[in-house]
Amino acid sequence: MPNERPDGTAGTTRPHQDHGIRWRLVRGEQSALAELYDGHASVVRGLAHRFLDDEDAADRVVAEVFAEVWATPGAYEPERGSLRSWLTELTRRRALRHLDESSLGPRARARLEERIRAASAAARADHMVTAMPGSLRTVLELAYVGRRDYREAAAELGVSEDETRRRLRLGLQLLSAAAQNGSEKAS
């Protein structure tokens, strides 16, 4: 089950939870698959729908992704990233496979592949932010979502302006490093 963030949106599982679910899946515990599905099916379906823009195809991708998880739970390597990241990658691959199997023309396929790349990048960015320590995530959300400058964010958080700037800088550095690592893995 995903963690609840202070704003009520779903977060990501913690690494020890990812390890626990993986081992339960490897042991064949159906309850682990149900827990994983309950916590992540909406993300997988949302990505599949954004990739394919087709309800039925998105539903097939969701079924295929979770069937693959059940069939090959050992394929998930926690040291390489979170379960959510792995599910995102499985979804991307399945969506691309659906595109390859479809009868789209080259231009339509190129447009859809570009949408898939953009949606994957957006999902990766969302995951990077949700995986950050709360103090960094909160200041980034205040600055970029809440449109507050560092002084306003500092006042709202009850910390010094220097601390707010430090958190912003560190958060942005983490995002930059994670984005760079993600683009290197994708190529």
TrEMBL record:
A Pfam family: Sigma70_r2
Ranges where the RNA polymerase sigma factor 70 region 4 type domain occurs: 126-174
UniProt-recorded Gene Ontology molecular function terms: DNA binding; sigma factor activity
Biological-process GO terms, alphabetical: DNA-templated transcription initiation
Keyword Transcription regulation attached: yes
Keywords: Sigma factor, Transcription, Transcription regulation
Annotated ranges, domain RNA polymerase sigma-70 region: 36-99
Family matches, as InterPro entries: RNA_pol_sigma-70-like, RNA_pol_sigma-70_dom, RNA_pol_sigma70_r2, RNA_pol_sigma70_r4_t2, RNA_pol_sigma_r2, RNA_pol_sigma_r3/r4-like, WH-like_DNA-bd_sf
Family matches, as PANTHER family: RNA POLYMERASE ECF-TYPE SIGMA FACTO (PTHR43133), RNA POLYMERASE SIGMA FACTOR SIGZ (PTHR43133:SF62)
UniProt similarity note: Belongs to the sigma-70 factor family. ECF subfamily.
Protein name (record): RNA polymerase sigma-70 factor, ECF subfamily
Organism: Streptomyces pini
Lineage, top ranks: Bacteria, Bacillati, Actinomycetota, Actinomycetes, Kitasatosporales
